[in-house]
């Protein structure tokens, strides 16, 4: 006999009762109530932590039983989903689950997110890419960029020089070279997903010859070819979603930290990929690929003292410029 | 003429949460694993299990609550919510005439869905074998969510206390336990009084966070030089510190004050509910929880959840006039879970 508390489903009146099994029937008895029901028509809750077990009757009545051991002895093997409770209360399964979850999340960040982002970037319609690129340039123009002060003859000369660039397979490359100046961004260049490449006056001034600028264009074309901009955007959204899902209950602020770290990691990988691409492009175009390393070293000089502030490079989205230059040197000599 | 009445016996019935962190950790991690390996398909089942664990561990007058939500209903609700979220995202990212159309459609659908969400949550909650129910009208949902919601938006949140009061009045005045109605009696004025210190603090923090940042950017644009990296770093640290203070200290304080205000103004039939959360105690709990969650990369989360629930529920009690046994059943039809999930995904806490 097991003790329980019975509610008839019509009022909140509690009845202290005892339960016993009578063949295939459950016999319930207490002050002012008595019933006998076939076990097969009862809905018996699966165990869940140390919460009371519940027997639900077809007419809405319910019986709460706190004596878990007594309940199991009485109605052994009743209640669906017992395996869940067994898993949840087994230390071994809980630890195994924990390790599996950690492995799945790590794998998701390492392979899943980049793969999915790649798919999204590849499937994005060209019209959308153009619209997005235009909007981005508008925002940049408004916030950070000023019109270029280079004479139009110089701009045209660089555009003509860029016509020489060929992909590694030797085919001409489709892109649009535009010029801007920026007081705040320093010597820099960037690519928009639609193939627009923005060269800043400060970078043009830093380069000693046009080949070095072509190296920059080739690097940016690497970003365009691999759709790095779109992929970074999609990956940022995916990681942000994951982090919010993971930490969301506690703090959305906490969720931004992993997003920033992951983005910096992905971004570093993209820079390396674009460098490798640039070396191949320059070689196919008959330009000395060493130019890229030369320019990276000059950039490093202008940025001296700013490199890898704090955090030991963890937050740097660009791998240290000198390290990149060394890598390019390696690629150049390896390809010879 | 008043009839002769003997004053009913007054007793205090405490609310208690009996869950344990270790136990919930097991449930949490198994839920997580199953959700991951099924690519999210298991998540409605996980949600039901989680809520059942919380409800069945919540004890009042020697009986526990129960949750009966159907995972499949939640699944369809989630699907609809995700579709709406995607539509919303695209409509607001790529501005066109469709943005307006999408926003109007979502705006008109949302009150309907939120009304459903409240109904679903209450209908599938029970205590002592009796269901809760929500009988607020759909028309009122439009008044509360659209009218006061938009008012809040257009007054830069100055009408937020009014909106909150109307929302709680709508929810609590239309909720039933069996055939016994809940009632809500907290004036708009008291909501404003509770909100006022927080609104002032928020305004001050906002100024402290953004004004220096704006000044530095303006100065750098004006002089045409890069801002000094050390100043920028210092300001970023200051900015994060301010946001941290806001989320980790002000939020729990506000939660405590509002929980006390709302629940101490709510009655079930003749029985008065009382909530006495100590704001600074809650700050300590949430602050230490956040630190521990951070150090453990999130693994402390189940303990944090249980700890906060244990405290917040443990601070509540019911002053009964007579006995709870007198409550009888009501009767409500079955309903779908659309809405419940929309509220989740759009991050609108309807705070039940």
What is the domain tally of chain A?
Answer: 2
Residue-averaged pLDDT of chain A:
84
How many strand segments of chain B? Answer: 10
Radius of gyration of chain B: 23 Å
The percentage helix of chain A is 40-55%
Mean pLDDT of chain B: 85
What is the helix fraction of residues of chain B, given as a range? 55-70%
Number of H- or I-type helical stretches of chain A:
11
Largest sheet of chain A: 7 strands, antiparallel
State the helix count of chain B: 11
Q: How would you write the strand order of the largest sheet of chain B?
A: 1-2-3-4-5-6-7-8-9-10
Can you give a write-up of this model?
The complex is a heterodimer of chains A (336) and B (352). With 336 residues, chain A is of the alpha+beta class. Chain A is 53% helix and 15% strand. Chain A folds into two domains: 2-89, PH-domain like (Roll); 106-303 and 310-334, no CATH class. Chain A contains eleven helices and eleven strands. With 352 residues, chain B is of the alpha+beta class. In chain B, strand 8 (266-268) and strand 9 form a beta hairpin. Chain B is globular. Classes of the chains: A alpha+beta (336), B alpha+beta (352). Chains A and B meet through helix 2, helix 3 and helix 9 of A and helix 1, helix 2, strand 3, helix 8 and helix 9 of B.
Label this structure with key terms:
heterodimer; A: alpha+beta; PH-domain like; 2 domains; 15% strand; B: 352 residues; alpha+beta; disordered C terminus; DUF898 (chain B); DUF898 domain-containing protein (chain B); membrane (chain B)
